[in-house]
Amino acid sequence: MIKFARVFFLAALLAPVNAALAQTDNLINISLTNYAFTPNAITLKMGTTYHLHFINSGSKDHNFSAPQFFAASQIAPEDQAKVKKGLVELESGQSVDVAVTPGQAGTFAVECKHFMHEMMGMHASITVE
Question: What residues contact 127, with CB distance under 8 A and at least 6 apart?
């Protein structure tokens, strides 16, 4: 009986850790640097929720503009204010998290809308299967 109690106690302690790990299974880190997105090609599955973690590690402000992707996806209610007109704006050094569930298959263009950033290489794509 004591052995069972120990196992139960240990399982109760680890349950929150397992839940946290399950939530990060679909975590995608997206780095915005001076004139690049990393990764520059993202593949997602339709109907699966992803946690997009945007990190601006560049010395300038950048944004992640994907209006067709965001329009074809469900954004978590608590994150909807972070996506304005299909883009996520980040100041230098800022990070933003957005939970999104793609609802339509296709390939969607991504770019930074700041002056000349896209022309200098700041573009990417999201493919939803």
Answer: 41, 42, 43, 44, 106, 107, 108
Report the alpha-carbon distance of residue 24 to residue 20 in Å, rounded: 7
Residue where the block lists tokens 């996520």: 88
Beta bridge partners of 107: 127
**In this structure, what DSSP letter does residue 15 have?**
H
Which domains does the chain possess?
A: 26-128 (2.60.40.420)
Answer yes or no: pTM beyond 0.90. no
Radius of gyration of the chain (CA): 18
Q: What is the pLDDT of residues 8-54, one digit of tens each?
A: 444 444 444 433 334 457 999 999 999 999 999 999 999 999 999 99
Pairing of strands 95-102, 73-75: antiparallel
